[in-house]
Amino acid sequence: MKNIKKPKLIIFTGPSGVGKGTVEKELFNNPSLKLKLSVSVTTRQPREGEIDGIHYYFVSQDTFDACLADNKLIEYSLHFDNYYGTLYSEIDRIIAQGKIPFLEIETNGATQVIDYYKKHKKVDEIVSIFLMPPSFSELEKRIIRRNTEPEEVIKKRLAKAKQEVGQANLFQYIVISDTVPQTVAEIEKIIKNEFSDLLNQKEEQNEGRKA
Ligand code: 5GP
To answer: Per the database record, which ranges form the Guanylate kinase-like domain (predicted)?
Structure first.
């Protein structure tokens, strides 16, 4: 019998400032994609409007360390002074609901997830998408535009963005984020193509991170 590829989860990554959040919000507005956010644990403080358990699991450093010690995280990363990590249990929970776990994570964590699936010979279960800025100068503009942070912090963000862009070829799909509609359309096409079996089943609501 033909071995049909059946991916189970999506890794969505790209440099800070590229617009992952905006694109994610649009994707989650389309219930036919059956996406569900993998809610990460983080040590960062909640921002206004963010809800524990929906946007993130906001935890103390001790709780985060305990998650690590108990081997509950498939990946984790220190991103600008805060830790972020993906729980194995989130991925399992979402798959059990017949939905597609959507991991919106930074690039270092994303490569750890890929390595894990490679190690366990399950790399076919992942669809990985890297959101690429149209140019580095455009990314610089976007980071500066959306940031009210001091120049030093912006410099650090740009340096990390450069490092992240350098890892783009580790991902299956590189989508250039020119305009939001074009980016969303391209990603929808990838998802519909990769997850055709699952998406042809009955539709349910998406549940995303962005309010
Ligand atoms: P923010 O604090 O703005 O919500 O997210 C900062 C960065 O952390 C974003 O690039 C986001 O994709 C990333 N991120 C969110 N959750 C995780 C996670 O579980 N693991 C990793 N490695 N990065 C994450």
So the answer is: 7-192
